[in-house]
Amino acid sequence: MFTIGNCSILYTQNEFPLLEGKYFGQEAPKHKAEIFMDGIISTYDKPEMCAAFSKDGKEFYFNAKYQNNWAIFVAKEIEGFWTKPKPLYFTSGYIDRDFTISPDGNRIFFGSNRPRKSGDKKLNALDIYFIERYPSGEWSCPRNIGMVINSGNSENYPSITANGNLYFFSNRNEGIGLCDIYCSKFVNGQYQPPQLLSNRVNSEKNDWDSFIAPAENYIIFSSQNRDDTIGGQDLYISYKRKDGSWTEARNMGPAVNSQSDEICPGVSLDGKYLFFTSRRRGKADIFWIDAKIIEKLKPDEIK
Q: I want to staple 175 with a disulfide (CB 3.0 to 4.6 A). Which of 90, 180, 231, 285 is the partner?
């Protein structure tokens, strides 16, 4: 048993295998995406999506259904073995989904319909929230990121650069399509009004679930029903030029995408693997692939 805040969580290993080593001791993928932790994390009967390891590799976070809502789960490596995943301690019947971890490992950003303040009703849309890790290793309570970012519409899938710039998608109907990707610069400790990314990234289709590289030199996102799509939703990548403009978004190809939906991309904090979600088995599962594909897809103009 260990304690987080005022909550004690008992980890039991019933029907959970003894797993040890980095990445649960799994054999690393290479040039084609493979399912992650088949039958253990990516189960056969329930959906799982989003995936991220902590900076030291000893914690693994992912989304799964819990009491009819999405929750963030965590498994920990303790005394050499991985614990059975459990919902984070603040899980309380609200939607908590589509998360990413900051490059320094000290914040988790996510979308939620939890009330903005005590006494309010739950939201009809999703706001961006975050939790922050204290020096003790405990996580803070969820905090709303504020109304500079959030609106009356949904803001979701937040991703952050090393210098604090925030990328997310929203359906606030100000952009090119129904859902578009925005960036809020982080200046002097404050988020600035979000700016719509150019039409080299956004399209007239739905563009969402964007992962921004810590150095802000590329962005991976999901887009729906583009002309070059392989499935319903594919992962695309765009690279930032020296002048700050983005290259034309490129489909990441059949090594990543399938005839089903691919969503929720994220690169591990060690830069080695691209994790994402796919519905190619009929439901949402977590997949991974060697992150070298990011360099392979880079256009000659910026190599």
A: 180
Tokens standing for 111?
């979308």
Instruction: Report whether 193 contacts 201 (CB < 8 A).
Output: no
| Residue type present at position 130 | F
Asked if CATH classification 2.120.10.30 holds for the domain at 30-302, the reply, yes or no, is yes
Closest by CA to 155, choosing from 139, 173, 141, is: 173
Q: For residue 15, is pLDDT > 80? A: no
- Cross-strand partners of 76: 59
Query: What is the rounded distance in angstroms from the CA atom of residue 2 to the CA atom of residue 10?
Result: 7
Specify the higher pLDDT residue, 5 or 201.
Answer: 201
Residue 79: C-alpha distances to residues 1, 61, 274 (Å): 13, 18, 27
Q: Which of 100, 86, 88 is nearest to 141 (CA)?
A: 88
Query: Residue ranges of the domains in the chain?
Result: 30-302
Helix (H) or strand (E) holding 65: strand 59-66
